[in-house]
Design a protein that fits this description.
Helix content is about 40%, strand content about 5%. The chain is mainly alpha-helical. The chain has a domain at about 55-195: Up-down Bundle (Four Helix Bundle (Hemerythrin (Met), subunit A)), CATH 1.20.120.450. It has a two-stranded antiparallel sheet with strand order 1-2.
């Protein structure tokens, strides 16, 4: 199933205006500096936000490519009673994203209306319903990230009434969401077994991959 991804954000769409640092001349081939010539500049905060967006778009793509390999039943498979199904993980991630990133700068990230425990209940959602829930959570999250400006990064936000900086809140989710996507992929590999289509470098293929002329960091395409 192919899904359009209007929410997808690239580094070129960022609009932050930041304090910048001059890059240093090469230590190998130092060139004399002409004060009248504008020097290359790099915005630290813009680079940080661009990098976060690239990484998260890449991890979302891993989830998207996993879902295309699964049928309806696969989403609800659980290895045992203590394990979450892929459906449950999607329910949880979407619930977290909508709670954390709706009115991100002005309201507590744990919304009063969120029912976190229900995110881990068995529900008979179809594959299409689960993907729509997945897309809704990501759209909220990525739209909010794209709207952040330099001045916002040092602000304080709250999650369950505990303060943390905006940067820390972003880093928290940069670790949280890929953690769950890894669980999704692991479950999918168990389900599909030998029919699983690899999403990264295939086993035994590292040297061949290293020798290609392709860009090695897949997140750079965003």
């Amino acid at each position: 199933m192919v899904h359009s991804r209007p929410w997808q954000i690239t580094g070129g769409m960022m609009r932050q205006k930041d304090i910048s640092l001059q890059t240093s001349p090469s230590t190998l081939n130092p060139q004399p500096l002409n004060p009248s010539t504008p020097q290359p500049q790099m915005s630290i905060s813009k680079d940080y936000l661009n990098t976060v967006l690239r990484r998260l778009n890449y991890y979302k793509e891993l989830g998207d490519k996993t879902f295309t390999q699964l049928n309806e039943w696969d989403f609800h498979y659980r290895p045992n009673d203590e394990s979450n199904s892929i459906a449950m993980i999607i329910q949880h991630m979407a619930g977290n994203m909508l709670s954390r990133w709706t009115n991100f700068l002005t309201e507590d990230g744990e919304k009063e209306g969120r029912k976190r425990d229900e995110e881990f209940e068995v529900r008979q959602y179809s594959k299409q319903q689960l993907i729509e829930l997945w897309e809704k959570g990501w759209a909220c999250f990525l739209h909010t990230l794209d709207s952040l400006k330099k001045k916002d990064l040092k602000k304080t936000v709250y999650i369950r009434q505990e303060p943390l900086t905006v940067i820390d809140a972003i880093n928290r989710q940069l670790a949280h969401y890929p953690y769950h996507i890894g669980q999704i992929i692991f479950l999918a590999k168990i389900i599909k077994n030998k029919s699983w289509q690899n999403l990264s470098i295939p086993r035994g293929g590292s040297q061949v991959y290293n020798d290609t002329a392709e860009v090695k960091d897949p997140a750079k395409k965003y």
